[in-house]
Design brief:
Number of strands: 0
Shape: rod-shaped
Number of helices: 5
Helix content: over 70%
Structural class: mainly alpha
Order of helices and strands: HHHHH
Strand content: under 5%
Distance between the termini: 22 Å
Length: 151
């Protein structure tokens, strides 16, 4: 009768750490997507010449009011554009290089996170490989002992 090996404590801890890292990554990705949606909403409102306020940006960008108020950069940008509209100025069109900078920053950050995830995965695989090698050595010793035993 063969028994199925049970997961060891380090294996369980590794799996838990992977799940935690995956949850953190998912939360970070969700946050960045919300920022991008809010920025796209601001650009659409500016381009259409519509009134810029927190409710309009939340509606067009598909984000919550709480998110906009909690995000300092977005809040400042919306308040500035809203103030320009109230003063009778047409909102200044955002410099295209600023959009490029945002895209470059987002892509660089995504690449950094992806590389970190790959490094973690490589470490995990190296640990699992070392554990497998240890198990192979242990089993080889048992076989040698069994073969060498008088019987």
């Amino acid at each position: 009768m063969t028994t199925r090996p049970t997961a060891s404590v380090p294996d369980v801890a590794l799996a838990e750490n992977r799940r935690i890292a995956a949850l953190r990554q998912a939360a970070q990705d969700k946050h960045e997507q919300a920022v991008q949606r809010a920025e796209a909403g601001i650009r659409r409102l500016v381009k259409a010449g519509e009134e810029i306020n927190f409710r309009a940006v939340a509606r067009v960008g598909g984000v919550s009011l709480d998110f906009l108020y909690a995000h300092a950069d977005l809040r400042k940008r919306i308040e500035t554009l809203r103030g320009q509209q109230r003063a009778g100025h047409r909102p200044l069109r955002q410099d295209p290089s600023a959009d490029d900078g945002t895209v470059i920053h987002s892509l660089t950050e995504a690449l950094r996170r992806e590389r970190a995830a790959h490094r973690e995965r490589v470490q995990e695989l190296e640990q699992r490989l070392a554990a497998a090698h240890g198990e192979i050595l242990r089993l080889q010793r048992r076989l040698r002992e069994r073969d060498d035993a008088p019987g």
